[in-house]
Amino acid sequence: MTGLDTTGIAERLGAAADTATAIPQLAAETGLDVDAAYAVQTALVQRRLARGERIVGLKMGLTSRAKMAQVGVDEVIWGRLTDAMRVPDGGTVDVAAFIHPRVEPEVAFLLDRLPEPGEPLGSFTDAVRAVAPAIELIDSRYANFTFSLPDVVADNTSAAAFVVGPWRPVPDGLDNLGVLLEIDGRVAQVGSTAAILGDPRRALDEGIRLAGRHGVRLAEGWVFLAGAATAAVPLRPGAHVRAVVEKLGTASLKAAGR
Fold first, then answer.
1. DSSP annotation of 98
2. Predicted pLDDT of residue 210
3. Nearest to 103 by CA among 249, 247, 254
4. Do residues 127 and 120 lie in contact, with contact meaning Cβ atoms separated by under 8 Å?
């Protein structure tokens, strides 16, 4: 978009994340559209790379109707994951480092090779080395967790942190596995992997296609988060979170504080 200060917008978003301070939406003020928002996202991630982080994967956003309804947008989006976002399975996060963190259960893929755009699902297991249950911690940098589609794209799809459970071989079917999100041992959300574009494998195809539009190709060894199977739940200090995915196992994290 001519005259748009993508670096300046990225700096505002990056500073908001660094200081855990919410800012107003930016798209209406700056005239940001979706294509320009991905340019801002690139600048935002470059800011992270400049301080020593490295890209370790991609994540999908808004792949379920529940998530679309929850945030009021209606298009699948993608963002980047860096090594600084990764939390060990069972690890602890500091809630104070975020603005208004939320958690959601996901399915993660470990890429064995670079998939080709439009590659049939039949060759999926040749491209994906393993699959695992996962938790994504999202944290919009916008006030009240409210945003337009360009806003959330520019904000690297609210990416903040992620946990991947134990990797295992890809089972025959991934399209209708039961999913639970537990908070302190109580079920907070119930869902199915069918909520992820009908089949989480389709999310990988969408990710390849959409990222490819902006010159980004997935790489061997990357983690790919396919998207949330349920709506997100606020993360409170002291909470213990567990995602359970049928046939895949569990992933968990703890929130520091009381």
1. S
2. 87
3. 254
4. no
Q: Are 239 and 246 in contact (CB under 8 A)?
A: no
CA 22-29-160 angle, 5° bins: 35
Residue that is written with structure tokens 């999310």 in the block: 203
Beta strands in the chain (DSSP E): 55-61, 77-82, 86-87, 91-94, 102-111, 128-138, 159-164, 178-183, 186-192, 223-228, 233-234, 240-245, 249-256
Span 181-217, pLDDT tens digits: 999 999 999 999 999 989 998 888 888 888 888 889 8
Stated as kind and residue range, the H or E segment containing 55 is: strand 55-61
148 or 134, which is more confident? 134
Report which of residues 63 and 241 the model is more confident about: 241
d(CA 137, CA 235): 8
pLDDT of residue 73 exceeding 70: no
Q: DSSP letter at 84?
A: G
pLDDT score for 205: 84
Q: Which two tokens stand for residue 84?
A: 């600084």
Helix axes 34-50, 6-19, angle to 10 degrees: 60
Sign, CA dihedral 16-17-20-26, equals: positive
